């Protein structure tokens, strides 16, 4: 039997957006624990840039993409939570979602509620599950209570806009940073209690002023190199520094004694993929995300759409800080 073919975005070596090209490959049949999904929309994420550029080294050739939504076409042995014809969405390893259809592990693939459109589903799984674990599981030792201040960088981005709304729903006072006044206003409109344009303002000084000199309980920092030092200055004693990305470049090595000098600070480097290592855990986090979206407390902003064949332009725009909210590729 001839396997159907699919378009897929592949790189043969790490580099710039020009390395990405569309290849035709067989889709294949799902083996045990796998499904075949036909995408209706594909999520674009900053991790795709790290994988493409080689910051996160992976074997070559490499098919990119960690997020998508579509319809289940075939189900392998032992998969009981999905049926042929189900609408589904996922954030999952291994990469390879930039394609029309793929065979992949079923563990992280979740049924998509009817009320959530494919584009939203494709835009919200990796980013929304990240906001979920950040706000619900990355807490200081004393926990987080309504009214507490947290600082969230890149607040108008894909993860950022979800986090702003979810933090508001939890009663937190999220201070959001963003790279333009327009982005700041968008973050504010989506629930940030305070906003700072970190291209024009000293964000550590503003955070101190906003919090009456006390500092925040948690900093959620995905910008990395450019914000690391000043972020530590924003924390209250025993505060938690959550570093979870490197949009401006990786954080350089630092001396632990710095953390003592800044007030016995806790530091953690988190990744979603430590949180979704089982079907049960993935589904529990996804159910929490689906509920907050279904309630209307969190809206998924799909602000940019590109046909799959324009994936190079989509990457250029994300890297140039020209996007807001989420971006999807349409196969
Ligand atoms: N560890 C995890 O589990 C995990 C999971 C998901 C995402 N992440 C991380 O979370 C961040 C957000 O991901 P996303 O996909 O939603 O992307 P995004 O926030 O939509 O885009 C990244 C944003 O970072 C800001 N930024 C600051 N300095 C930058 C620079 N030098 N170059 C490019 N961007 C810069 C830009 O916003 P401004 O113009 O407003 O500064 C840009 O829009 C990324 O760092 C990503 O790696 C981590």
From TrEMBL:
Oxidoreductase is among the record's keywords: yes
Keyword Disulfide bond in record: no
Domain Enoyl reductase (ER): from-to ranges: 15-329
Domain of life: Bacteria
Matching InterPro entries: ADH-like_C, ADH-like_N, ER, GroES-like_sf, NAD(P)-bd_dom_sf, QOR-like, Quin_OxRdtase/zeta-crystal_CS
Pfam families named among the record's database cross-references: ADH_N, ADH_zinc_N
Entry GO MF terms: mRNA 3'-UTR AU-rich region binding; NADPH binding; quinone reductase (NADPH) activity; zinc ion binding
One cellular-component annotation, GO: cytosol
Keywords: NADP, Oxidoreductase
PANTHER family to which the protein is assigned, alphabetical: QUINONE OXIDOREDUCTASE PIG3-RELATED, QUINONE OXIDOREDUCTASE-RELATED
The protein, known as: NADPH2:quinone reductase
Organism annotation: Tepidicella xavieri
């Amino acid at each position: 039997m001839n396997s159907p073919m699919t378009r897929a975005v592949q790189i043969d070596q790490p580099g710039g957006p020009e390395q990405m090209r569309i290849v035709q490959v067989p889709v294949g049949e799902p083996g045990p624990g796998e499904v075949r999904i036909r995408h209706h929309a594909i999520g674009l994420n900053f991790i795709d840039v790290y994988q493409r550029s080689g910051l996160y080294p992976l074997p070559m050739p490499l098919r990119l993409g960690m997020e998508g939504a579509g319809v289940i076409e075939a189900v392998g042995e032992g998969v009981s939570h999905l049926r042929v014809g189900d609408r589904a969405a996922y954030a999952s390893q291994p990469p390879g979602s930039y394609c029309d259809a793929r065979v992949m592990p079923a563990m992280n693939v979740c049924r998509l509620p009817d009320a959530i459109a494919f584009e939203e589903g494709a835009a919200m799984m990796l980013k929304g599950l990240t906001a979920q674990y950040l706000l619900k599981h990355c807490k200081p030792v004393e926990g987080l209570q309504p009214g507490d201040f947290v600082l969230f960088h890149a607040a108008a981005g894909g993860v950022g806009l979800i986090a702003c709304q979810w933090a508001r729903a939890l009663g937190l006072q999220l201070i959001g940073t963003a790279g333009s006044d327009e982005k700041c206003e968008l973050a504010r409109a989506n629930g940030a209690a305070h906003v700072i344009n970190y291209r024009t303002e000293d964000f550590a000084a503003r955070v101190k002023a906003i919090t009456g000199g006390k500092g925040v309980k948690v900093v959620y920092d995905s910008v990395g190199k450019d914000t690391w030092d000043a972020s530590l200055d924003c924390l209250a004693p025993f505060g938690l520094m959550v570093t979870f990305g490197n949009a401006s470049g990786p954080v350089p090595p630092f001396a632990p004694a710095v953390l003592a000098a800044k007030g016995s600070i806790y530091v953690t480097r988190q990744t979603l993929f430590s949180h979704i290592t089982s079907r049960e855990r993935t589904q529990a986090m996804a159910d929490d995300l689906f509920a907050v979206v279904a309630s209307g407390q969190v809206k998924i902003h799909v602000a940019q759409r590109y046909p799959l064949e324009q994936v190079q332009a989509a990457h250029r725009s994300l890297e140039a800080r020209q996007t807001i909210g989420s971006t999807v590729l349409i196969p």
